[in-house]
Amino acid sequence: MTLALDSIDQALAPLVEVKDLKHVYGGGKAGPGLVVLEDVNLTLKANEIVGLLGRSGSGKSTLLRSIAGLITPTAGTVSVSDVPGDDAAHGVAMVFQSFALFPWLTVQKNVELGLEAQGVPPDIRRKRTLAAIDLIGLDGFENAYPKELSGGMRQRVGLARALVVQPSVLLMDEPFSALDVLTAETLRTDLLDLWSEGRMPIRSILLVTHNIEEAVLMCDRILVFSSNPGRVIAEIKVDLPQPRKRLDPAFRTLVDDIYARMTAKPKAPAREGHFPGTGLGMALTHISTNTLNGMIETLSGGPYNGSADLADLARELQMEADELLPIAETLQLMRFAELAGRTLRLTAPGKRYDSFDVDQRKQMFAQHLLAYVPLAAHIRRVLDDRASHQAPASRFRDELEDFMSEAYAEETMDSIISWGRYGEIFAYHEDDDRFSLDDPA
Amino acid sequence: MVFLSSDRLNAGLIARFARRELAPNRFDLIAMALIGGFAVLVVHGARQMSLPVTALDTTPISLDLARLPEYALRSTLRMFAAIILSLLFTFGVATLAAKSRKAEQVIIPMLDIAQSIPIISFLAFTLTFFVGLFPGSELGVECAAIFLVFTSQAWNMAFSFYQSLRTLPGDLAEVSQQFGLSAWQKFIKLELPFATPALIWNTMMSMSGGWFFVVASEAFTVGRTNYMLPGIGSWLAVAVARMDLGAVGWAVGAMAVIIVAYDQLLFRPIVAWADKFRFEQTASAEEPESWFLDLLRRTHLAARLFRPLSRLTERLIPPVPRRRVIPRPINPHIAEWIDRLWIIAISVAVVCAVWMIGVYLVRHLNLRDLLTAVIDGFFTFARVAVLIVVASLIWVPIGVWIGLRPAWSRRVQALVQFLAAFPVIVLFPFVVIVIVAWRLDPSIWLSPLIILGTQWYILFNVVAGASALPNDLKEAAGIFHLRAWQRWRDFILPGIMPYYVTGALTASGGSWNASVVAESVSWGRTTEVARGLGSFIAEATAAGNIPKVALGATVMSLFVITLNRSLWRPLFNYAEKNFRLT
Lengths: 441, 582
Known about the structure:
The complex is a heterodimer.
Chain A: H1 8-12, E1 16-25, E2 34-44, E3 48-53, H2 60-68, E4 75-80, E5 92-95, H3 107-118, H4 122-135, H5 151-163, E6 169-173, H6 181-196, E7 204-209, H7 212-218, E8 221-226, E9 231-237, H8 249-263, H9 289-300, E10 307-309, H10 310-317, H11 321-333, E11 337-340, E12 343-346, H12 348-355, H13 358-372, H14 374-385, E13 390-392, H15 393-401, H16 406-423, E14 427-429, E15 434-436
Parallel strand pairs in A: 3-7, 3-8, 5-6, 6-7
Antiparallel strand pairs in A: 1-2, 1-4, 8-9, 10-12, 11-12, 13-15, 14-15
Helix pairs in contact in A: 3-4, 3-5, 4-5, 7-8, 9-11, 9-12, 13-14, 13-16, 15-16
Chain B: H1 11-19, H2 26-48, H3 68-99, H4 101-114, H5 123-133, H6 138-166, H7 170-178, H8 183-218, E1 219-222, E2 225-228, H9 232-241, H10 245-274, H11 291-298, H12 300-316, H13 332-364, H14 367-403, H15 406-421, H16 428-438, H17 442-445, H18 449-452, H19 455-467, H20 471-479, H21 484-518, E3 520-523, E4 526-529, H22 533-543, H23 546-579
Antiparallel strand pairs in B: 1-2, 3-4
């Protein structure tokens, strides 16, 4: 990429600098809180698109919001340098995953919003707004309301609204993930064209995504995040020339490589794989038992015969990495499969499970659940010990909240309820939020 | 209770709110004490002022038909004055509650209690207070009437606005913050538009309920003083006193015309216009329509009238560039001290209030009055309970029948909305004539009056609920040949439950209010009285016995609050949680 700037100095000065960022949700008197981000350092220079890649819950959106000034980090500093002479109020503007358009304002009024906040006089505001609308390919839609537009057009409005305030850095929070595949592709291509032709007033883009191909397609540099807590585990430079082709072998190699890094186990060896916490404090991801069964069946059938490459699997099942990984990890937790690098392999019990009929599967699922998920064994023990064979669910929820945030505790409870019901190791009554051993059968 | 709009608006929001803080907490007690203390202060203050009320000289009301349009207009203006007052109150108080945690702790329980109080019983106080404020002038009476209507309208509006402010969509709030919108810009661009649909709906419901209070507050007797404000209510009072059945008929007609006009010329256009503020990104299948709004939009005149208005709102936004203010967290030590001071201030106010109430009660009341009031309260309670059950048995099947037939339900909805807005006081004389003519027992036969105006809430909501039953479930019920009883038990009743409960609790609250005018009804010199808390208050008011009125009002408030907390709200939450079909 060529430098189109007046001075090398200015070009090399970082636009955004994040130092030792740490972010903790909750915490305080109740407990230690959930560490979302830890030890994050990031430097954003001019003329680069940087991707923040990670699974949901890896804190990449939190990082983006810290840079946008929407939240204050628990520790560390974020500095955004304003370009001298730039009349923008602040150096960043953000594009949202949900578009975040005001439904009662027309396209034009939506785009004008930031300028109005800066107190730009109406005639200049109008001129700049129309220019931005024109640039982004929205002319003709000035008087439309967001509800009249398709998703792609709405995100264009979101983009125009961010560009019109002339930020030096454009922050994009999963901007294409709410769109269908074709629309997303068109928008990406249009954005890259505008970027490479230098027609946008911005000097750098920071893109949050969980889509590996999207990151490789667009970014000059990719920071890969681990989850729980979010840390930068890899920084990958993408030197492929633009426009990049998905079928290019070099492209594929890079995607596969990133897959491997994202599934790599953290340095501290934990038998539970990626599940944060151990024992009772293990946060579970709610994966339906149908999905687990389906994955086991897919793995055991052809062409995989018990062992599959995650990237291949993702392509065949049309799943994103962050949809696929929790399934693989849950299977690993239950010892039905094991993850080694990029390969997911069925274990001997996993193969046996596959050959069973429904009732045998349920029995085996129950055994594994009690053996490998401490919370399940704990609930069952409490129910066995009590004369009434009943216990309020709130009791276990409170116990979980000593280890994790409320949201994680909620999801963990949902998981254990649905798995426990499938394995028939206990019953749960939604009406009064209670576990029991009674069986309608 | 915030009104649930049948299906149009964000019912989910309302439900989420209602689930908050179910059990009465210390803030409820604080709020109750403060309100009580305030009432005592008002009465006390009014008594201190010399009261030349007897000297009040109002223009006599004539039953001349030519005057009727003027009276109708005056009643309507009173209504609008009250609604504007309510809106101002809403913007001020609800915004304060949403923005300040400290204010919220006091305001929200106070609103909650205030909306449970049968405010018509307080007319005697407000009258005393305002007449004292403007001695010898009609303005005082006018203010008292408007204030009464205001107190019947403001609370649910304020609640709805507060709720909207508390549930702003997160991403839009982030956009506002990211672009550095000022507080005023955020209010105009985000908060007000987002709150508009729910607020308009609640305003309209408030206005519907308000006609009753407009009519009831225009002609009133406290002690030996008759207050008459020119309006339909006074026309009616004079017609009743003179036993002029024709004039009563004209009042009914005038009221009908007003309500239809307000529905067509105001309600519908505003609802249709506010449709654009609905928070959804997809176009709705069925948009509300208004012929009057279409007409306005087509005329050039309207455009000319509104253009300067929109320019004005642009002007209101200060065009100065604003630096983004990064809120600096207050020093935790100082914050802690502020919290402590706040708690001390509230405690002092509560102690003062309790002390004042105690002194007042000891000085003016005896135990026998209290006992009578409580026993009368149970009489009225029995009346309300029985009538809600009877009305439910009648209207639930009819409502379901109508709701399942789309062609019918739309027409009936409009009629029911009209009936709900219609102030039934206007019809009371006819009932008294029948009771007198057939020598019926008033304790029984006056009872239906208290639900005459409020039963429509049950029908209205049941129709809405039945028409919202999803088609696939209807088909499933058909395919599996559910038997009649099974169909009701497993499908229809659970399906309409959240709607029915909303309707029933609204009807119940309204009935307590109506009992004050419905348990003691006159025709000429005959006055038929049914024993109950309503007639207790009505008689004390007529006798000018303020402490007894206060006692009756307080006992009634306690009845209503207890009922709401122990029956309606748990029922509402249960229905919302288990039976809400989304």
